[in-house]
Every structure is written in structure tokens, then in C-alpha cells.
Design brief:
The complex is a heterodimer of chains A (245) and B (212). In chain A, 38% of the residues lie in helices and 26% in strands. Chain A is of the alpha/beta class and 245 residues long. In chain A, the strands form 2 sheets. Chain A has a 6-stranded mixed sheet, sandwiched between helices. Chain A has a 4-stranded antiparallel sheet with strand order 2-1-4-5, covered by helices on one side. In chain A, helix 3 (96-106) packs parallel to helix 5, helix 4 packs across helix 5 and helix 5 runs parallel beside helix 6 (171-186). Chain A is globular, with a radius of gyration of 18 Å. By secondary structure, chain B is mainly α. Chain B is built from 9 helices and no strands. Chain B has helices at residues 2-42, 46-59, 64-78, 84-110, 113-121, 126-141, 143-156, 168-179, 182-211. In chain B, helix 2 crosses helix 4 and helix 8 packs antiparallel against helix 9. Classes of the chains: A alpha/beta (245), B mainly alpha (212). Chains A and B meet through helix 2, strand 6, helix 3 and helix 5 of A and helix 5 and helix 6 of B. Chain B: InterPro entries: AA_ABC_transptr_permease_3TM, ArtM/GltK/GlnP/TcyL/YhdX-like, MetI-like, MetI-like_sf.
Chain lengths: 245, 212
């Protein structure tokens, strides 16, 4: 059963063809890593899954609902799809705890006690229970990203999108964040789509790796196949450049 | 000056009261309307955006006196009879709200788009994201220019004098023409305006520091 399904999806920014004829199926529980050079359309692809980018044609079915259909309630889909951004995007006017609690409160109408208990448990999970009352500006990038992950999980999503979650972090903070993501993706019923440049991490967590360039999916393989013997020439070039250092 | 103040203190106070009342009503109403128009100007919906832009461009580009005269002279002819105070306060509200809209809009624009995206990605509606995440941050940014608008509003309320709005300026004119104590009268009137505007200045600065 697929969680996310792209069918002949086209996306344009004005005249620029950002996603070309995308066909892609991601099954429930799968962890898929999306790699490719910058400007290849991987972030656009991930962001279209929860409607942050609108597609111009084709079908994009998320958890059984077609996002491109005007009758679809996009907010309903978004409660099922968590998203973690490159620049964290924690709400700057709310403390850490409130960052996690606000969406469950106003979107899911969650009971306040349950919400708080849930939020504290999540903070504990990402190792930041002591930062509950700090403002986002008072914590480090790595901590902020872990809070952002907890914030997404508070909605109890079925699927997570990670859009370059470690690209804006200092090297020594990357491991903590990757550790949390690894834990999230290991949950058996969680579907994850991860855009990343961390190849070692990709090898470790991904069931499948997708390589994109110029708005197209050029390779879609099981992880070990992709890293050992990519069939696409462009993908091979890309890997040789990245892995050499 | 003391004698003048002693003799006419109740007249001055009446004017002071009407000025404060008009300013308070116009401040609250223009902040509300201005904020709504500011949001209209940035929403994805094209119709609302056009409404917001047209509203702002019309009312900030017409002299306040023209707007007030319109409500004082034209509206009673065709729609409903309103007195000078009401016409003046409505005109003041509409005029100021256009400037507040521009101020708040610039604040909204200064907030990183990621704040809106993160809110929407969590399933919040556009209005909820604005209300709980973007606007609170935007207002914080625009406190200093908003303070300017409030001060301008209080001073602009003197336009009520032209439409028999019984405000400070109106009473000042009346006293001056009665007593010919022109200098002293307007010195006192000016001092009364300071009594309103200086605390606003001070309070906005305090707010800016407290929220920074």
C-alpha cells in the first residue's frame, strides 16, 4: 500500500520546468532518501508532498487523497504529514514547549493536559526536556532542529518529510540530529522522505535511494544497489564527487 | 495665562475630553482595520489583495480634511445624518488605518517566510498562522513606526475643529476669538496635546524595550 504516489507530476516556476514527469511511489513504512545536485528539484519534490509547492499537472496522492484535487482539504493532509526544514523555522515568538503544543491545540483540539504530557515526552525523547521554557533564539541549531522534529511528531503524523535537515548545522551538531531522525525512521509504521547530502547516513537509514537531476528522477534503487553499482551515468558522477571527501 | 486657564478650564477640559475620546476610538478602530487591510495586502487570494491595495492607495493619498469633509457634508446629504464629531472620527479612522496598514504590512513582510510555511505545514489555516505566529512577530517589529502613527493620529484629530467636533482645537479657536488672547490660548492647547502625545511616545518606547 503506497503512502505517497506521484503520477506524471509536472511543476513549473514560471517558465522553469522544476519537476518533469515525476512518477514515484513510496510505500507505507518505507524510508526513502532523495539525493542530487542543488537545483535538481529534490526540495521541490519533497515540498509538493504537503502542498507547500503546488503542482501544475498530474496526480499526487498522499495517504489516499489527491493533493492536486481542489476539493481536497490540504490542512487535513498536513496533519498526517510532518515536515522538518533546513532552517528549522521554529516559531520565534513561542518558547520550545509552546512550539510543540500549539498545532496540536489549535488544529487537533487536543486536550491541554494530554498535549503537555505528550510534548514533554517528545522533548525528553530528543534529549531537550530541560530546554522546554527556552526561546528558540536561546538554543543551538542542533537543538532547534531536534525541537522541530519533536514539533512535527506531536501531530502524530504517518509520514515525515525532511528537507535537508542537517545542511544548516555545525558539523559537531549533525550527529545528534541524525540520531533522532534515525530513531524516527526506525518506527515500523513511519514513512519518511529525506532530502540530504549525508551519504553515510543515507546508506544507513534508507530502504531506497532516489537520484534526481534537472527536475527528473534518474535513478531509483535499493540502497545497497545504488551505492555499489548505480546504473545511471550522472548518478555515478555525482557519487564519485561526493564520496571522495 | 493662569487667569485664562482658570476662567476657561471647563471649556479646555471639554475639548480635551472630546479629543481623547475621538483619538481612542480612532486608534482602536484604525489599528483593527489597518491590520485587516495589511493582511489583505499579503494574502494569496487576489481579490482580497486588490481590495487591500485599493483601500490603502485611495485613503492614504487623499488629504485628511477632504475625507472628513466628505463624511461631514456628503454622507448626511445622501445616507444618514451624522454630527461633526462622528464624521471627524470616522474620517480620522479611515485615513489613519491606511497608514497603519502600510506599517503592519511592512512588518509582516519582514518576518521570514519559513514562519508561515512551518505553521501551514503543521496544518494551521492561513488565518491561524497569521494570528498566532506571524502577526505577533510583525507587530513587535513595527512598534516604533506604529507609535508615530498613533501620535500623528492624536495631532490629526485637530481636524475635528473644522467640522464642529468640539475637540481641543475647536474649543481653542472659540476661546481665542472670544478673548483675543491668541498666544496664550494656543500655548495652552499645545500643552494639552503634549499631555496626550508624550505619554504615548514614552509608552511605545517602553514597549519596544520590554519586548526586544
Amino acid at each position: 500500500m503506497s503512502m505517497i504516489e506521484f503520477r506524471k507530476v509536472q511543476k513549473y516556476y514560471g517558465k522553469f520546468h522544476a519537476l518533469k514527469d515525476i512518477d514515484l511511489e513510496i510505500d507505507k513504512g518505507e524510508t526513502v532518501v532523495l539525493i542530487g545536485p542543488s537545483g535538481s528539484g529534490k526540495s521541490t519534490l519533497a515540498r509538493s508532498v504537503n502542498g507547500l509547492e503546488t503542482i501544475q499537472s498530474g496526480q499526487l496522492i498522499v495517504n489516499g487523497r489527491d493533493i492536486a484535487d481542489k476539493k481536497t482539504d490540504i490542512n487535513r493532509i498536513r496533519t498526517d504529514v510532518g515536515m522538518v526544514f533546513q532552517h528549522f523555522n521554529l516559531y520565534a515568538n513561542k518558547d520550545v514547549l509552546e512550539n510543540i503544543m500549539i498545532a496540536p491545540r489549535i488544529v487537533l483540539k487536543m486536550n491541554e493536559d494530554e498535549n503537555k504530557k505528550n510534548a514533554m515526552a517528545l522533548l525528553d525523547q530528543v534529549g531537550l526536556a530541560d530546554k522546554a521554557h527556552n526561546m528558540p533564539s536561546q538554543i543551538s541549531g542542533g537543538q532547534a532542529q531536534r525541537v522541530a522534529i519533536a514539533r512535527s511528531l506531536a501531530m502524530k503524523p504517518r509520514c515525515m518529510l525532511f528537507d535537508e535537515p542537517t545542511s544548516a548545522l555545525d558539523p559537531e551538531m549533525i550527529d545528534d540530529v541524525l540520531g533522532v531522525i534515525k530513531y524516527v525512521t526506525s518506527q515500523s509504521d513511519m514513512t519518511s522522505l529525506i532530502v540530504t547530502h549525508e551519504m553515510g547516513f543515507a546508506q544507513e537509514v534508507a530502504n531506497r535511494v532516489i537520484f534526481m537531476d534537472d527536475g527528473q528522477i534518474l535513478e531509483d534503487d535499493k540502497t545497497d544497489v545504488f551505492f555499489k553499482n548505480p546504473s545511471n551515468e550522472r548518478a555515478r558522477q555525482f557519487l564519485s564527487k561526493i564520496i571522495s571527501h | 495665562m493662569i487667569t485664562l486657564l482658570r476662567t476657561y478650564w471647563s471649556t479646555f477640559l471639554t475639548g480635551f475630553g472630546w479629543t481623547i475620546l475621538s483619538s481612542c476610538i480612532a486608534l482602536v478602530a484604525s489599528l483593527l482595520i489597518g491590520s485587516i487591510m495589511a493582511v489583505f495586502e499579503v494574502v494569496p487570494n487576489k481579490t482580497l489583495r486588490t481590495i487591500g491595495t485599493v483601500y490603502v492607495e485611495i485613503f492614504r493619498n487623499i488629504p485628511l480634511l477632504v475625507i472628513v469633509s466628505f463624511f461631514y457634508l456628503v454622507i448626511p446629504m445622501y445616507v444618514v445624518k451624522i454630527n461633526g464629531f462622528t464624521a471627524g472620527t470616522i474620517g480620522l479612522t479611515i485615513y489613519t488605518s491606511a497608514f497603519i496598514a502600510e506599517t503592519v504590512r511592512s512588518g509582516i513582510k519582514s518576518i521570514n517566510i519559513g514562519q508561515m510555511e512551518a505553521s501551514r505545514a503543521m496544518g494551521m489555516k492561513y488565518v491561524q498562522a497569521m494570528r498566532f505566529i506571524v502577526l505577533p512577530q510583525a507587530f513587535k517589529v513595527v512598534i516604533p513606526p506604529l507609535g508615530n502613527q498613533f501620535i500623528n493620529l492624536v495631532k490629526n484629530s485637530s481636524v475635528l475643529a473644522f467640522v464642529a467636533g468640539f475637540d481641543l482645537m475647536y474649543q481653542g479657536n472659540a476661546i481665542a476669538s472670544q478673548t483675543f488672547a491668541t498666544v496664550n490660548t494656543y500655548l495652552i492647547v499645545g500643552a494639552f496635546y503634549l499631555v496626550i502625545t508624550l505619554p504615548i511616545s514614552y509608552y511605545m518606547r517602553h514597549l519596544e524595550k520590554r519586548l526586544a
